[in-house]
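Sample intake — WIPI1 protein
Collected from: Oceanodroma tethys
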Amino acid sequence: CSSLAIGTTTGYRLFSLSSVEQLDQVHESNEIPDVYIVERLFSSSLVVVVSHAKPQQMNVYHFKKGTEICNYSYSSNILSIRLNRQRLVVCLEESIYIHNIKDMKLLKTILDMPPNTTGLCALSINHANSYLAYPGSATSGEIALYDGNTLKTACTIPAHEGPLAALAFNSTGSKLASASEKGTVIRVFSIPGGQKLYEFRRGMKRYVNISSLVFSMDSQFLCASSNTETVHIFKLEHLTDSRPEEPPTWSGYMGKMFQAATNYLPAQVSGMMNQDRAFATVRLNISGQRNICALSTIQKLPRLLATTSDGHLYIYNLDPQDGGECVLIKKHSLLGSGKMEENKENDLRPPLPQSYAATVARQSTVPSTSTMPGYSEDGGALRGEVIPEHEFATGPVCLDDENEFPPVSI
């Protein structure tokens, strides 16, 4: 979550998310119109683009050089693309193509899959655990888990009763979150075993369309956004384990009685009672628009980022200790010209209370950028270490701007 890519009617844009106050535009391209998919490989110069003009064609560019590495055409429209350091996955409605990202060779085509009209799929960003998840059924919430490294099916997970709407891996590929089309319950499973670890209730009053599901980098939090104005952030902890020494108060006594009573209730009822509520929430000032959220660390503080389809980026502060309502501190426009022009009235950040600053200072669970290696266009000086050669599959790859990926002719 260190950069943002947006597709527009005129092309695509890439932004750096290293600062709250300033939104730096890294690159803008107007060569291909009506871009509806743009995926950047971490902080590298490799970007994959799909346009409505040619919805069956995937174009892979080295945007710093302004050169096309390769392009591939498929039998039907491309619905989504996922990539990590090892694999590039192209999802069509009834098939999935898995490429080796170093030379773009096609390694596997998954054909025996139900219709996937939204192109729903998730790929672990951890190339050591290149697990791929996609719907295993068009009528139920079954998840098909595929190992992108061994190119074999890992397992199927009966996650929900209704069809799936959202899937997301955590940063290590050890957990998978899912939501159904109802959008009321979010579940987290262990990977690759598929055991249910957590179950969160987003709401009971109305069904919603979950548009974004994402873990924080340290896997402590899970964020879910939908077509409503509320974004929910859940904390991945077992509440029964975190409060062993509860004081002998009336409320504590009643809580224990309630927990005991669930043992005598039907499984469906007791399960719903034991579900955890949201740890923190965000109230967007828009409703009904598609949005994508992310949990990131910017300038050493935890933030929630929300990007909406009308072309705005909202940045909120997240209190990792107490949660509650997140505070909007900045709003950026993504559709301006050149470097983003910001008005002073957009600076919505209130003075932070001392207790919150002290709380954040004590929080050491979020890994620093220096311990999170990734592709780096600055040689590792600003965005983490350069990935060692041994972390890749066999074959020479030089991760610098002169020869980031070997040219491929298709």
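Post-analysis note: The first helix runs from residue 239 to 242.
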